[in-house]
């Protein structure tokens, strides 16, 4: 935050500056732009009095001054000298006045009269010499006469050269004087009445009265006395203005009037600015200053005004930081940037204040805005003079107060704008995302396209991807370990080298064990190999004999053993027989049980089971038969016994009468039974003796074994008949019982299904299965083993006999297996002894085990013999190649020192790759890096670029529509609000005051209706004085305050304006000129003293407190731009240089002052842009006539050679006197050459002649430089070139050499022996002083003579000593070498030839990845871009791509974009498409004549 010390310092500088100005120090002294009225009398006696009389009597006049009446023959030398000085002064005043008008739009020539002389009351050492009144004048030099001038009052020069009356300009009182007296003595001097000032005429009486009132206010005298003195003094002829020493000698504390006058340039009075600073001090606590809170002022970085990316970046930055600096080197479009900023601000509804000292700069911005949109231009108010510009402001508001018709509503316009703004941002984000993807490192420090290029370069060596489906990706970390690839490649290169050296002996020593190389010296290992070889060759013969014996014995045993053996057993044993005879030693162990052995065992078991079942069944049959017969006998015997017992018991009880079964006996018994229980029982018993036979019969008839006839079915009178029959059966039964055992034996003797007891069917069912099973087993045994039963087996009894025989025979067959096992065991032991022998050879006591795989398991005795042969051969080869063992030892030691994964990798690669391992692996590895790590947003075509371009076009009109709609609506609302308060717009913005009412000044209008005014003019373009004059001193009343040409704005002049803005934009160039005396009134001296000093700026030496020093240092900033830098405003840099149509015009400044960060646009044609003309004229009287005449001659040539439109031309000189001389010479030539005069008339304002101090901001097609200085008549050469070599004078050089658009003609008289000293001078003091000026002269000569080597050498030197090297150059390095580009180049060159392709082609400030020349010529035709420009770190990357292409296409290039995303996996297809495009362009261009419109610089 600034302190009061800071503000007081600014106030002091403002007042001090005023004291030095013509307003408070009117003495001409040695200043060339001031002229003492009394000097008129030198020309003609009484001419001064005549002028004064005309001035006080006429409000408009033309007063001529001419040397025509002077007879120089009668004039002495001193008078002639005075006349020369008069002419020089008058010419200088006129030229300076005209130049100032061209830049600021204000004529400042005036006449100050009379002069108040007063010693300062606060600083008696200072004496004020101030004119009381100032008459605005115009002056012109005669075109027809050399020394004739006209002073005009309220007259103007018409285009035809005639003089006519002009608007009346009133006399002005010296406001600076009034303010100074008020500030020093608190005395308010009386003003003249409005009537006196407005009639533009002050007569003698009014003048004397005004002087009297002033003196009365300052002194103690009475007005009457003062008037007497003044009237008396006024009658005295006009006096010469005394010099400062004379005044200092006589001046006391009493103010007095000197009736002398001075012609001079009364430039901007700063009283309004001083007043603002005073108010800031008085109201200090009301202001927040640096603490003012500023909201985001920009919602989009886009503007309807065309911008390049660096300009667009400034708009973007405004949205992030409110305080900005635009560093805009010459020709980089500062005004365009400000126009875009303003347009963007208007779109956001912001109000802008633009402050600049030069009206020309303000007009450029106004014109730019009008060019973008006429209606938007109406929103811009330019006020450089509060009086002259009032009418245009008033008319504009009055015309627009009722609104302007607009096709769409504010809402529609805003919606369209918001939509397109969002879409444009979306496109920009998409393109930036693509650039970030390109910039992203995907492996190590390598970006996508770099890896693609490397991959393609490697891939072309192979028809297919090497190691594809050989290596496993899971074994590698890829992007997870960015050091992996380098480590593996280093490994592979080393391994590949060692492998190749030892490859011819790999087969010799490959069987050596790894242990032989672990920590084993070559010599030690070699001794072991020799020991092994000797022992092996010694042991092998005996081993071979043993093996052969085993082979013979094995075959002999097998022949005997297999003889007579059943086939099935032989077949099974044959599977294992090879081991026993030595044909297969690695056989599986014998099974615990052979299949046939198991089968025999199963058969034996089955037979034994069958025998058991048969025996069991026979026994069951026997038991069943016994039971069967015994049961029958038992049942029958029991039934008989029961019956007979009953009969015997009944007879014994009742007697034999019981047996009487006659009729009578039966009757008797029946009768008696009625009465007697006995007879009743007898009757019952008789019945039962017959009936009970049924029970006997039932038991008997169970079987049919006993024949018997019963009689119980017949009636008998004697019941004994029944009893006898039963007893007979009893006897038969007993007889049968004795015979049935024989029956049983008969059944058992032949047990088969045909001879079996009929009642034993359950057992009978078992017979046949048993016999069938036996026959099945028998058949198997017979078939497999040839064993046949001795007798047939028809029944169970024969089966029981045959089974034991078969079991015995089968057991005999089982013995073969045991015999085989015995042989197997014996052979195993023999084989083990054989293996032990091999092992003994392999690991002999002296050498140890040194081979691996040489003693590999052998599968047979024959193979064992082969191992013997191999061992013998290996041992022999070892011995023969021991001299080659060292290289193999190095390879093997290296290999074994690797970890398992590395060994595996080398093993795989060595077996699949014959050439370079590292290249093959890198190709494979990069393929997977690309496959696994492809960024998702890599560009694949230019769709997003085209989309952005289309949306940008639509956005432009949408933003302009939004601006017009928004501000039209705001104006209408402001008018409504104003009228609602009972006020009329026309009354406030009145054109003429009504009767008794004055016109409202702009200050009054702004004060009464600031919001209304700024709604109609949301953009105000003002100079600092007008700003303080008409705008209220309120903090942040504008959203945005912009300062143009800030390097030439004094801080004290602009700080008050700075306060009025929220966001602050300071635009300038720190390498251009700082404020000079030119802007206060020319400080050019008539007779400057030659000074050769190149010292830098002085440093303050006063002792101050740290805080005071900080604030005072800020207040002492050389310019507003320097202040902003010191305050830490965010700096943005414009990068694209548009002005120079040939890069050589800006290259010098670019390298010397800007760190080579500027991007010049390409040259449209090849020509010499700087012509160096060594004039060698004499430097006399501060001019060089020869150079002046050469300049005019050049101008004549340029004008007459012009074809069509006349080029704009500017002439720049190193002092104002050379400028004046050139104008005089030019005037003379125009008089004598009508054709030339006509051409110059057509040129009008496009031509100027200026000195180096006031050329900043100008540009012309052609600039002619006159360096002015040269040898003097005595041959001496003074290196005192004035400000251009002093302090920061190199900025002047930077300005003066960068004004040309097309060409520079350098006319110089500097001796070459001095100019050639530039290298030493630059090495001593850097890029400044004489060194940098001499370097430019040499550079110009090199360009003129096409000495490219010298030109480049100078640029290299300048770049080395450039102090401004901190800029980020990544964005202006438009194209960088990459493996991808190289690969495209090589593939393309194979088809169209390398001579047609140029890599990294420079054109202007642009570099193109590749350029395809037109077929059969050297003219660039096609611009090949690989993945687009490399703006990866720039927020404006999206804009650079389109901008760059647009610029290059403008110069004739045809663009073709190549995308690495497509090339890396389909290079052949993409190459074919590219070739098709080239051939198509070749065919098209074959019909077009060759031309040389494209300029290339390398």
Notes on the structure:
A 7-stranded parallel β-sheet has the order 14-19-13-20-21-12-22, with helices on both faces. Strands 1, 3, 4, 9, 10 and 11 form a 6-stranded antiparallel β-sheet that branches. It has a 5-stranded parallel β-sheet with strand order 25-29-28-26-27. It is built from 53 helices and 33 strands. The radius of gyration is 66 Å and the shape is elongated. Among the domains are: 20-58 and 73-136 and 170-267, no CATH class; 273-283 and 313-404 and 412-428 and 943-1082 and 1120-1125, Rossmann fold (3-Layer(aba) Sandwich), CATH 3.40.50; 1136-1361, Rossmann fold (3-Layer(aba) Sandwich); 1379-1485, VSR Endonuclease (Endonuclease, Chain A). The longest helix has 60 residues, at 595-654. It has 1498 residues and is of the alpha/beta class. The protein is 53% helix and 11% strand. The two termini are 50 Å apart.
Label the CATH architecture of one domain. 3-Layer(aba) Sandwich
List the uncertain runs: 1096-1104, 1367-1376, 1491-1498
Rounded mean pLDDT is: 88
Q: Quote the CATH topology of one domain.
A: Rossmann fold
Key features?
alpha/beta; Rossmann fold; seven-stranded parallel β-sheet; 53% helix; 11% strand; elongated
What's this model, at a glance?
By secondary structure, the chain is of the alpha/beta class.
Lay out the secondary structure.
Blueprint: H1 4-20, E1 35-36, H2 40-43, H3 47-57, E2 61-66, H4 77-104, E3 109-119, E4 127-136, E5 138-141, E6 148-153, E7 155-157, E8 163-165, E9 172-173, H5 175-185, H6 194-198, H7 204-218, H8 223-235, H9 244-250, E10 256-258, E11 262-265, H10 271-282, H11 309-318, E12 323-327, H12 334-347, E13 352-355, H13 359-372, H14 374-377, E14 380-383, H15 390-400, H16 410-439, E15 441-443, E16 446-447, H17 448-459, H18 484-502, H19 506-509, H20 522-562, H21 567-581, H22 595-654, H23 663-675, H24 677-691, H25 693-700, H26 720-737, H27 740-749, H28 761-785, H29 796-842, E17 843-844, E18 848-849, H30 861-880, H31 885-896, H32 900-912, H33 917-933, H34 943-980, H35 985-988, H36 1002-1008, H37 1010-1016, E19 1019-1022, H38 1024-1030, E20 1038-1043, H39 1051-1059, E21 1061-1068, H40 1106-1115, H41 1120-1126, E22 1130-1133, E23 1136-1137, H42 1144-1153, E24 1159-1160, E25 1170-1174, H43 1185-1201, E26 1209-1213, H44 1216-1232, H45 1234-1243, E27 1247-1251, E28 1260-1270, H46 1290-1296, E29 1300-1309, H47 1312-1315, H48 1318-1325, H49 1329-1344, H50 1348-1361, H51 1379-1392, ...
Parallel strand pairs: 12-21, 12-22, 13-19, 13-20, 14-19, 20-21, 23-24, 25-29, 26-27, 26-28, 28-29, 32-33
Antiparallel strand pairs: 1-11, 2-6, 3-4, 3-10, 3-11, 4-9, 5-6, 7-8, 15-16, 17-18, 30-31, 31-32
Helix pairs in contact: 1-10, 1-40, 7-8, 10-38, 10-39, 11-12, 12-13, 12-34, 16-34, 17-33, 17-51, 17-53, 18-31, 18-33, 20-21, 20-29, 20-30, 21-29, 22-25, 22-26, 22-27, 22-28, 22-29, 23-24, 28-29, 34-37, 36-37, 38-39, 42-50, 43-44, 44-45, 48-49, 49-50
